[in-house]
Each structure stands twice: as C-alpha cells, then as structure tokens.
Amino acid sequence: MAPTKPPTPPIVETKHDEIGFWSEIKLDILKKYSLAYSRIIKKQSLPFKTLYIDAFAGSGKHVSKTTGEFVAGSPARALDVEPRFDEYHFVDMDEAKVKSLEQIASKHKNVTLHHGDCNRVLLQEVFPRAQYKDYKRALCLLDPYGLQLDWNVIKTAAQMKSVEIFLNFPIMDINRSVLHNKATDRKLALMTKFWGDESWRDAAYRTEPRLFDVQEVKVENPDLAKAFRDRLRDGAGFPHVPEPIAMKNTKHSVVYYLFFAGPNETGSNIARDIFNGYRKKGYG
Questions:
Q1: What is the distance between the alpha carbons of residues 10 and 156, in angstroms, rounded to a whole number?
Q2: Rounded Cα distance, 187 and 28, in Å
Q3: At what angle do helices 265-280 and 21-42 cross, to 10 degrees?
Q4: If we measure between CA atoms, which residue out of 85, 180, 174 comes closest to residue 136?
Q5: Signed CA dihedral, 173, 175, 178, 180: sign only
Q6: Residue 232 pairs with which residues in a beta bridge?
Q7: pLDDT band, very low/low/confident/very high, at 15 (cuts 50, 70, 90)
Q8: pLDDT tens digit string along 247-276?
Q9: Is 50 exceeded by the pLDDT of residue 206?
Q10: Selection from 58, 136, 150, 56 nearest residue 97 by Cα
C-alpha cells in the first residue's frame, strides 16, 4: 500500500489591521505625494535612482472600519505609482504580515521584504543603499503603531540629505501611556527613545502658579506637536518641516499628527499643498 500523504494544512490568512477613515486619508496623502515625487525625480537630467521605504509596512492591505471592505495599504499603493521607484523596501516585525506581503511583492520587480526591527533594518541594511553621492533618493514612511521608533532613524535620515520622510507622531498613545502619573518606566523610556532625549519632559509640561506654589500642567496637543516639529528641524537637522496635519477620529480627537520632513523646499511645498487641500475639505 502506498504511503498516505499527510493532509495539507489550510492556509490561514493574516489578520489584517482595521483602520479608521483618518488612516484612509493618510494613505491618500501618501499616494498623492509619491506620484508627485516620482514624476519630479524622473524628469531630472541627472541619473537619480529612487527608493520607497515603508518601515511598518503591515500586511499590504487593511479592513476599513467604515465600510468593512479591504483597503489597499501603503506598500500596494506605492507599487502602483508610475513612474516606478527603482527599489522598494518593506519592513515589518510580524512574520505573518511579511508572508502576506510576499503575495504582493511576487508580482513586482525590485521589492525586498525585511522581517525584523526597522530601527536596525533601516540603519544597517536600507539607508546605506540611499547615499546622496550615488545619486540615490529615498521616500521613507515611518508609521509606527505607537512609540516603537528610535530617534536615531529620524536623525540619520536627516543627515543623509537624500531621504524624505512622512512620520506618524502618535499623540493619542503618548497622552494615554506617557503623560499621566501612572506611566511605567518602560513607556517613559520609549518616549525618550522616540524623542531622542529627555527634553520631551520640558516640552510636554508647563508650570502654572498656585496660591502657595506652582504645578505642572500638560500642554495642549498642538503645542507638543510644535515642539516635535522644532525637534525635527533643530535636533535632527531637516531643513524643511511644514506644519503637520492632524489625523482625527469620529469624535474629533487627534489620533496622531502626520509630519513631512525633507532636505529640499520643493518636496516641502508639495507636502504643504496636499495637507492644506485636506484641511480645506475639513480634515486636519
């Protein structure tokens, strides 16, 4: 009797993240900027090569909380941009999400998937491929789920002069997990790692006089976002950082601020125009 083959295990699809409409707006913003970026770079007379980098790439698609339908994620949208980027680098810590990305990547050339911590992967494997002197230019999405990002990644991107970033500043997570009396040492350390030093403490609080002493009061969200904008310019060294756009939920609470930071005025002006276009529609 021929040996019986073991049954093939069923393919379990990755659980895709649910996203609110504010994240769908973010995805539209990124797609618009990516189109403009690619077209402008490819029109230059110099032989530029372009990289698209997504540091928290996810599974490649999401589920809309509004409609319940699948929504293409930032990797899939970037791969649809024409002219195409010369290299794509998608990074995620979740092995199942990287496996899901393989289905998208297999249909395209020059896509590299990285399973690991983006703080290590970007600094050691990806950013070295985007050297200014080699006529390389990169557009990098830093969209952490919370405070997982290391300031060294942001500062290195600025110092390279060849990398533009879109950055999620997770103000709601910061308010909930850091800026209250019961914040854990781990969360405080993560905030310092994200901000780059302890100066976030001075930026996050102000002193107000009381009858016999003073008290510390948490600053408003726009004030902390402004302080981080100053960090991107003065601390990291990005010459151009337009005012970020606030991503708000259905209760009009700010979930995060979407920042753009880059080495040239052209990119900053395009990002500002896109942000302002959504503000005129009532977003941000």
A1: 43
A2: 31
A3: 150
A4: 85
A5: negative
A6: none
A7: low
A8: 999 888 999 999 999 999 999 999 999 999
A9: yes
A10: 58
DSSP H stretches of helix in 106-184: 118-121, 151-160, 171-177
Residue range 27-54: mean pLDDT, rounded: 96
Amino acid at 147: L
Please tell me the distance from the alpha carbon of residue 109 to that of residue 205, in angstroms, as a whole number.
Answer: 49
What percentage of the chain carries pLDDT values higher than 90?
76
CB 133 within 8 A of CB 231: no
Q: Are 162 and 130 in contact (CB under 8 A)?
A: yes
Question: Model confidence over 76-126: pLDDT tens digits?
Answer: 999 999 999 999 999 999 999 999 999 888 889 899 999 999 999 999 999
Please report the domains of the chain, with CATH numbers, ordered by start residue: 18-170+225-280 (3.40.50.150)
Is residue 284 very low, low, confident or very high in pLDDT (cuts 50, 70, 90)? confident
Coil, helix or strand for 28?
A: helix
Give the DSSP per-residue string, 100-141: HHHHHHTTSSSEEEEES-HHHHIIIIIGGG--GGGTEEEEEE
Q: CA-to-CA distance for 185 and 47, rounded, in angstroms?
A: 48
In order of 19, 71, 106, 281, the CA distances from 75 in angstroms are 15, 11, 13, 26
Relative orientation angle of helices 185-195 and 151-160, to the nearest 10 degrees: 0
Count of residues making up the chain: 284
Two tokens, residue 87? 């290299």
Judge contact between 97 and 59, C-beta under 8 A. Answer: yes
Contact 153, 123 (CB under 8 A): yes
Chain-centroid distance of CA 195 in Å reads 15
Four-residue CA torsion sign, 106, 57, 154, 120: negative
Residue 100's H or E segment, with its range, is helix 95-105
Token pair of 24 as six digits: 């769908």
Q: Could you report the per-residue pLDDT of 59-83, keeping only the tens digit for each?
A: 888 787 778 778 888 999 999 999 9
